Amino acid sequence: MIKIKSQQFTSKNLEEALEKAQLEFGVEKNEISYKVIQESSKGFLFGIGSKPIIIDAFINENFLVNKIKEFLSEVLIHFDEDIKTNIKVFGKTIVIYLDGDGLGKLIGKHGRTLGALQHLIMIYINRMTDTKVDIKLDIGEYRKKRRRKIEEIAEQAALKVKKQKNEVELAPMFSFERKTVHEYIRKNHPEIKTKSVGLEPYRKVVLISQ
Fold it and tell me: Structure pTM?
């Protein structure tokens, strides 16, 4: 679970404590989670010995999901196509799926528009939390298809390295593409070493014969 901002609240019951948290944070009710620090008790006669409830309330991942939806609505309004958005949270990773017709403009040449949009969302979201949140954007299952293509490129490069006993430098790739190459070579060609070189956005993978 992603915790964005936390604070303790004290009140006579849970409902009032959550209302205080919602007012303090300025968020919707479903955007708050909490942990009870101290249970309330009525005490004895005339309330002697009574104790208030104390909770540690924090803004949860629903807040970020809603912010992403707002951000995307501002971007997608410039496209004529009816694009559906599906967002899922896995630990500290938020995966955004976009689907619909005419997604080519959103993907861009070699996935560059997709990569740029993902980068913008990551910057936007990580300014709201102290916890590093990883954003993964997939448009029309482009990443799944692209992964297969990258694995084919990695395989061809590995065969070339084995044949020539030399280094092979691949074209610049996005981080998820480079990661795919590293994982594929490590799993299928452990005798070949890989390393990433250069600076973004021209960072690339080099395969080295050992």
Answer: 0.70
